[in-house]
């Protein structure tokens, strides 16, 4: 089904805006390089805007960021010194010693800023690849509009400022689509390898493999599709043979676990509407318009729209709020080409660019506000770090924010961190015994609800045990939430022996 997705050649070539601008320049500037740079200007401006939007976001390490980087450092230490390492396989969304180790190397060189900077580079690369893919197929205007609506979406801006697996996987998926629409065998091999690595990096990324294969099938000869498919299956298969224990534990944890963060359907739908509601509507229109061009185009529209809604639909069914908004960046990647197609069609209507400008401006406003809300959804641990730094005593510390605190206090090897998420499931008796036995040098909790009933119940028991104990005292209280007078950090410290 070669060239099904390519734009058909028209008899008349209407000059593009960049050609018109180039022709309006002085004669000495009307050279090929000038036309190229004029044509690239919108993309360059877009990339600069996305960079500013992501770099403006600031907070201490998110629990996932801290967990991955800490694990990476543990693996590096294990490989270099032979020290034991915790088994992370059942708590990670991908192979635990690939991205985390790379993130730890970046962290060693440039700290959290560099690790987050790598995520931004991945999102910028994905934006370029969205444009390049559509431009290669002959849809240059659609490409720049698709790249714009993708880059301005809140979850994408958020992913570009977060040091997790997601930005890299999004870039890999975008690269797989770009190489997938090429026609030579080298690009087919590259597509298969990249696509096969996606579920290795993030297990849930396997859900997008059929979407990319549909695009490859419609854009190139069938032998390329077969080659891509074989390699895309062989790569994760080889990874399974090499690391079956870690991958098996992670996949089992992903598919056979209780909901980590229960949320009502109304809450999840509200997030969906606020984060990508406009994008979904525009993409739906684009999909319907594209489907009118024939069965092949209808199939790719269905694949892109279905791929864009796959993860949020699954989480809506489960009532799972964990990483819900973060996963909407994947939705944006597959919905953006359809939205770009719709916006390009709309820009050629009677009112020309006015409705397109309005829609993109609205997308930008939502993108700014929603990315800011997502980035401030976790509480900064900086005040707690400052308190501990002032009087750091060796021993075991326990907190619901243990991973983040461990990351920011990694230069304090005398402190051993444990998480309340491991203590609470042991039951009320075990919690009280831990306090009576003075197991912890310090206990750091938040007074606000965790949002999970089981965790709240465990925290209530721990707080009461600490207040009743003759061995612990409340040594510090600091505001945790900027917009709440009741959300406080509570630091309990073991009393010194008299």
Automatic annotation (TrEMBL):
InterPro entries: LipidA_mod_glycosyltrf_83
Main location: membrane
Organism encoding this protein: Arthrobacter gengyunqii
Transmembrane segments: 37-57, 109-131, 143-165, 185-218, 225-243, 268-291, 298-316, 328-344, 351-368
GO molecular function: pentosyltransferase activity
Keywords: Cell membrane, Glycosyltransferase, Membrane, Transferase, Transmembrane, Transmembrane helix
GO cellular component entries: plasma membrane
Protein's recorded name: Uncharacterized protein
UniProt subcellular location: Cell membrane
Membrane disposition: Multi-pass membrane protein
GO BP: lipopolysaccharide biosynthetic process
